[in-house]
């Protein structure tokens, strides 16, 4: 079977361009691949074009918009997910501008499709007391409980994304002073994050118990399941949810109704901000490219905003005490009015 121009370009885009020229991470490329799996399914189901016969001429701005609408109506995707899929398609058509400039007009029509506006949710984070309560829940008399405590404490201490925790290896951690951890984040960008001695106690005990300090284990997953395989996103979220539920039973006011692994990252960032750490340092700690991304924490911290406003407040209006407050006989004061 002769490959179509669509299949040849998509193969080059995913297998060569993204990892080679763009240097994107495996996770990002997997996300882009899944977008095209969905797009091909749409073309087969809705446009009745077999995958082996899809050509570039079949893809227009109208068909892409239909696909995006199909994601929301048939697959019940959110506007945010729709925007992620659109970003992957935009990347592909940027690529095609240079591969097939003869179709530039159509590619630019597709690139003109705008993202949908999304509702900005409030940042979901735990207080320091909430974090403490949650970390008290793992049963440290069991092997899994000790692993879970080490993992959740590390997730909070270094404000790591869930995928960054999944990808950690024993060699990522420096157990001598100064204690640090090397985290590889989005776009394969690495950052060195300091660790506190209290966290090192947990993680070192865990690594010794699981023989992760031995040379042959240096490239193994730091946290793994019963089959010695990396934990998955769903697996870590399930672990977190289990302890969040038990913590909520003890003190529901300290545990948000909705909690995810990213809540730990938000919590650490908020706690650093509340402790007076400069936003620039928090940006580097989180691995953000721009401090503008980190500013969401400053906007979310209503307590800090109130304190800043109160410090800057200049008394313009004279504060007066109503005379009736100084009058023990309120009834008499009221009767004095004519």
What does this structure look like?
This protein is mainly alpha-helical. The protein has two domains: 5-111, DNA polymerase, domain 1; 128-308, hpI Integrase, Chain A, CATH 1.10.443. It has 16 helices and three strands. A three-stranded antiparallel sheet has the order 1-2-3, with no helix packed on it. Strand 1 and strand 2 form a beta hairpin. Helix 7 packs across helix 11. The longest helix has 21 residues, at 79-99. It is globular and about 75 Å long.
Beta-strand proportion = under 5%
- 3D shape: globular
Task: Give the CA-CA distance, first to last residue.
Answer: 102 Å
| N-to-C order of helices and strands | HHHHHHHHEEEHHHHHHHH
Q: Please report the total strand number as a whole number.
A: 3
Q: How many discrete domains?
A: 2
**What's the helix count?**
16
* CATH H level, superfamily name of the largest domain: Intergrase catalytic core
Q: Which radius of gyration do the C-alpha atoms yield?
A: 27 Å
Q: What is the CATH topology of the largest domain?
A: hpI Integrase, Chain A
Largest sheet: 3 strands, antiparallel
The level 1 CATH classification of the largest domain is Mainly Alpha
Q: State the secondary-structure class.
A: mainly alpha
Stretches where pLDDT is under 50 for at least 5 consecutive residues are none
CATH architectural designation of the largest domain: Orthogonal Bundle
**Mean pLDDT, rounded to whole units?**
85
Query: Strands across the major sheet, in which order?
Result: 1-2-3
């Amino acid at each position: 079977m002769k490959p179509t121009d669509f299949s040849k370009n998509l193969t080059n885009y995913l297998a060569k361009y993204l990892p080679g020229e763009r240097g994107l991470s495996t996770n990002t490329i997997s996300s882009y691949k899944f977008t095209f799996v969905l797009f091909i399914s749409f073309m087969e189901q809705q446009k009745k074009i077999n995958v082996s016969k899809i050509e570039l001429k079949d893809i227009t701005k109208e068909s892409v918009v239909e696909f995006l609408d199909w994601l929301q109506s048939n697959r019940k995707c959110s506007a945010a997910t729709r925007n992620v899929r659109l970003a992957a398609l935009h990347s592909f058509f940027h690529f095609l501008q240079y591969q097939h400039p003869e179709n530039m007009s159509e590619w630019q029509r597709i690139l003109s499709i705008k993202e949908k506006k999304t509702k900005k949710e409030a940042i979901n984070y735990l207080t320091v007391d909430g974090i403490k309560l949650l970390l008290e829940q793992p049963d440290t008399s069991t092997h899994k409980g000790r692993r879970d405590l080490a993992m959740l404490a590390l997730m909070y201490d270094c404000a790591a994304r869930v995928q960054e925790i999944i990808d950690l290896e024993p060699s990522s951690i420096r157990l001598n002073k100064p204690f640090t951890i090397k985290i590889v984040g989005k776009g394969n960008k690495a950052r060195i994050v300091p660790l506190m001695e209290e966290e090192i106690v947990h993680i070192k005990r865990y690594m010794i118990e699981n023989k992760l300090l031995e040379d042959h284990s240096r490239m193994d997953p730091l946290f793994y399941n019963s089959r010695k395989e990396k934990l998955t996103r769903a697996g870590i979220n399930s672990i977190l949810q289990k302890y969040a539920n038990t913590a909520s039973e003890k003190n529901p006011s300290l545990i948000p109704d909705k909690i995810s692994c990213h809540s730990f990252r938000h919590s650490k960032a908020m706690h650093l901000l509340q402790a007076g750490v400069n936003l620039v340092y928090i940006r580097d700690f989180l691995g953000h490219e721009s401090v503008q991304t980190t500013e969401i924490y400053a906007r979310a911290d209503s307590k800090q905003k109130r304190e800043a406003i109160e410090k800057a407040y200049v008394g313009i209006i004279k504060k007066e005490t109503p005379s009736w407050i100084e009058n023990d006989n309120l009834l008499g004061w009221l009767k004095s009015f004519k």
